[in-house]
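Reviewers of the previous submission asked for a worked example of the structure-prediction workflow described in the proposal, so we include one complete record here. The input consisted solely of the amino acid sequence. No template or homolog information was supplied to the procedure at any stage.
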Amino acid sequence: MSDLLVRNVRPLGADPTDILIRDGIIVAIGPADMPQGIAVEDGGGAIAWPGLIDAHTHLDKTTWGMDWHENNREAVLRSRIDFERENRLAIGIDPHRQSMRHAISLAANGASHIRSHVDIDMTHGLRLVEGVQQTREALRDIIDIQIVAFPQSGVMVAPGVVDLLDQALANGCEVLGGIDPCGIDRDPKGQLDALFALASKHDVPIDIHLHEAGELGAFTMELIFERVRANGMQGRFAISHAFALGMNDHLRVGHLIEQIAALDIAIVTTGAPSATVPSVKRLREAGVRVGAGCDGIRDTWGPWGQPDMIDRATVIGMRNGFRSDADLRLALEIVSTGGAAAMGVPGHGVAVGSKADFTLLDGQTVAHAVVNTTAPRPLVIKAGRVIARGGRSIVEMP
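From that input alone, the workflow returned the following structure tokens.
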């Protein structure tokens, strides 16, 4: 932790003022005299915004910084999963090096926290998790990384994976993942019961990938609701993607959202352009915690994506038909304080008493900052220290 005075910034887009930080906590917001023995930074009139949060990504997958990966495969979920699992070593995707590149880029672009789903399967065991754990330790002073033990290739269809998930949770993974209990495992009861049993044993939350669309996804959600109630996991479950909430049945979706809100289940969206996606505005109006993530970026699945949550706010805004300044502000909230709520990160904000995890944004207004995607973040603060300046991290890219 450190002390810092950041002058001439606009907290949350308000009038210019100063932010005083002591021991990594914001202790005052307002015109400040020059304290003795404290570092001072000039914010240049930029907007001070809570640290951006990538609440759904895959640090172990990216080919960022590597030679171009030629993708000549069909876009089918199961085949993409199988190709990646069987070929990632030959391609040279080192989980530590590549997760460093991804995480450093996110930090340089204003992120303060990451939730990364990391593959666990019978081919690689815990090797990929161990690589990302190395990265978490190496970058602990510039960004917080939460690791999800993620059975990408399935649970019930992959005997032995439950034991590996058990080991991963015992060895430092904070969250348990899952994936398409019907579509991947074809055994929703088996997968969900196994996941809830592991979560109960290790006292960890669950964050499940749910690509299942339409009525199939709604059916899986209802199975999840039953188990959240039975296991007392209200507030400790997240559904990522939640494509079923984008189906064209307003009343059906409304009933699902009512239950999601009542059980305090978080929804984490990526604004996937090629799928039906939930309405983030409708979810927020219902009181649902909504976060967002950049998902996989430039990997064997596809060439798209940037390690930048402002870019993702733009994707989500476009996918949700956002045009007004108020809606653009909502998109920015979802990739910052919304992600903090979804991940359970306390004290996240730009207010007296908040942790000093914030980024400066270049824009005339908050809405302008959201669409001003090519502008580097002038300054990024983590725990009261400057960790990036002008879009460049203090940690060199490997």
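The first helix runs from residue 77 to 91. We consider this example representative of the routine output the project will generate in years two and three.
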